[in-house]
Structure formats: structure tokens, C-alpha cells
Design a protein that fits this description.
InterPro entries: RNaseH-like_sf (IPR012337), RNaseH_sf (IPR036397), X-over_junc_endoDNase_Mg_BS (IPR020563), X-over_junc_endoDNase_RuvC (IPR002176)
Structural class: alpha/beta
Largest sheet: 5 strands, mixed
Order of helices and strands: EEEHEHEHHHH
Strand content: 15-25%
Strand order of the largest sheet: 3-2-1-4-5
Number of helices: 6
Helix content: 40-55%
Radius of gyration: 15 Å
GO molecular function: hydrolase activity
Catalytic activity: Endonucleolytic cleavage at a junction such as a reciprocal single-stranded crossover between two homologous DNA duplexes (Holliday junction)
Protein name: Crossover junction endodeoxyribonuclease RuvC
Number of strands: 5
Low-confidence stretches: none
Main location: cytoplasm
């Protein structure tokens, strides 16, 4: 029937980086854990990035996922905020890559389409569908719920030809 694959989804943010872990076996998904890594918004940027790095590294060390998925950054009108988000996203991609995981990336609309069936929707719809797909799922923030949605999206797309080719590289 195949092997169980543990996936961590990461929703990057400088203040709060959400994470969610699911196990995928065939078409079946099981909630494992979720949470939020927080940085001290009064600290220097480099310190905050270290806090995100250390928090995510501890989660990967403890949970030992096989694969990772990170949401792609969208560009907004505030260039400084977009740049900071990009730096947090870099940490979100670096930590699993340093752990030897292949890191998949998904656009926000792809995550929404995988979870709620359409490419546009609000957070309430995503959270509701995460709970429908995994009734035992718990999340402490919107970021953690979004991270679970990213993990679910990856579970649905991981068998694509592009992902299989990337895994061979």
C-alpha cells in the first residue's frame, strides 16, 4: 500500500511562522501536530531571524518529517514588509533544506484550491476545511492552520511528475 510520509507545512512570517505536520498514506491524511514559532518584535532583525531558525530547527529535530512545503511570498504594496517576509521565508526554506529535505513551494492560490476547491477564499473557509479533512487537527493561530493547509496541498501534489523529477535530482 506504500509508506507513510510525514510532511511539514510552513507558513512563513517574521512575527509568527506557522507550522503543521501531517502524515500521508495513499489518499489518507492524519494530523500529527501544529504550532507557531514566534520572534520578539522588539529585537533586531538578525536576532528575530535566528529565533525563527532555532524554533523551526527544534521542530524538525523533534518531529523528523520526510518532506517540507513552504508557501510562496506574495508581493504587496509595502516593499519593506515584503522584503522582511522574504527573509523569514528564506529561513523557512533553509531549515528543512539543511536537514536534508526537499522543499516544495506553493502559491497561496494553489494551497486554497487544494484545500477548499477554489483558488480564492478567506481564512475561515481554509480553517473549516482543514478541520473537515482532519477532525483531530488543532492549531493555536491562523498561521498554524495555514501551515496545515500547505502540508495538505503538498500531500495532494507530491506525486506530480515535477516533484518526482525534483526528488531524483
Amino acid at each position: 500500500m506504500g509508506e507513510t510520509i510525514r510532511i511539514i507545512g510552513i507558513d512563513p512570517g517574521l512575527r509568527r511562522t506557522g507550522w503543521g505536520i501531517v502524515e500521508s498514506l495513499g489518499n489518507s491524511l492524519r494530523f500529527v501536530a501544529s504550532g507557531t514559532v514566534r520572534s520578539d518584535d522588539k529585537a533586531a532583525l538578525a536576532t528575530r531571524l535566528c529565533q525563527l531558525h532555532d524554533g523551526l530547527a527544534e521542530i524538525l529535530h523533534t518531529a523528523m518529517p520526510h518532506e517540507a512545503a513552504v508557501e510562496q511570498t506574495f508581493v504587496n504594496k509595502d516593499a519593506a514588509a515584503t522584503l522582511k517576509l522574504g527573509q523569514a521565508r528564506g529561513i523557512a526554506m533553509l531549515v528543512p533544506a539543511l536537514a536534508g529535505l526537499i522543499v516544495a513551494e506553493y502559491a497561496p492560490n494553489a494551497v486554497k484550491k487544494a484545500v477548499i476547491g477554489v483558488g480564492h477564499g478567506d481564512k475561515k473557509q481554509i480553517h473549516m476545511m482543514v478541520k473537515v479533512l482532519m477532525p483531530k487537527a488543532t492549531f493555536d493561530t491562523d498561521d498554524a492552520a495555514d501551515a496545515l493547509a500547505i502540508a495538505i496541498c503538498h500531500a495532494h501534489h507530491r506525486q506530480s511528475v515535477v516533484y518526482r523529477l525534483a526528488a531524483l535530482a
